[in-house]
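Q: I'm writing a short explainer about Rhomboid family intramembrane serine protease for a general audience and would like to include a description of its predicted shape. Could you first generate the structure from this sequence?
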Amino acid sequence: MANKKPYVTYVLIAIQVVLFLAMQVMGGSESALTLILFGAKFNPLIAAGEYWRLITPIFLHIGWMHLLINTITLYYLGSMVEEIIGRWKYLAIYLASGIMGNLFSYQFSDNVSAGASTALFGLFAVFLALRNLYPSNRYIQNLGSQYMMLIGMNLVFGFLGSGIDIWGHIGGIVGGFLITMTLMKGEGHDDRKTQRIGSLAVYLIIAIFILLNQGTVNAIMP
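A: Of course. Here's the predicted structure. Afterward I'll give you a sentence or two in plain language.
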C-alpha cells in the first residue's frame, strides 16, 4: 500500500475546506448562527432529533487557524493511518471517532462546537490499539509509545487551555480505540471474534446511553 495515494484523506480535506469557504460567504465561520446553520454540535437541536449533528461538526471549523491546524494534522496523520490500515477501515474509524467525540461533547458540554479534532484524536488512538494488537511489531510499538505521549500532552494542554472541547477529544480517543479494536485482527491465527464483538458492543452501549440520557441540554440559543 506504500505507493497508493491517500485519496480518502484528500477527500476529507476537500470537504472541510469547501464547507469552511461556504461558511465564510454565509456569515463567517466564527458566527454561532452560521455554525449552527451548517450543522455544528448544538445540544438542544440534537436532543430534538437532529442526530446528523453528531457527524457534520467533524467537517466544520471555527476560524482560519482552526482549519489550518486541523488540515495539516489530517494530511500527515491521516495519510499515515490510511496507508497502514487501508482506506475503508481508516474512513470508518475517522467517522466513528468523530461521532463518539461529539457524543461526549453533547453529554458533558453545553457549548456550540465543531472541528475535526474529535476524529483526529481517534486517529491518535489507532496507534494505541495497534500497539495492543501487534505486540511483536517494533515499528508499531514505537509509534504507539510516541502517540501515547502525544495524546497525554494534548489532553493536559486541553484541560489547562480555554475554548478547547476537551470532552470531544476524550470521546474521539475512546471511539478510535474501540473501533480499531473492532476492525483489526491483530497478530496470530486467532481472529479475536469475541474481543472484536465486545469492542463494538461497548461503543454502541456508550452511544446509546448518551442518546437516551439526552446529554446536557442547557445551552441557550445564541
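A: For your explainer, you could say: The chain has a mean pLDDT of 90.
Q: Perfect, that's easy to follow.
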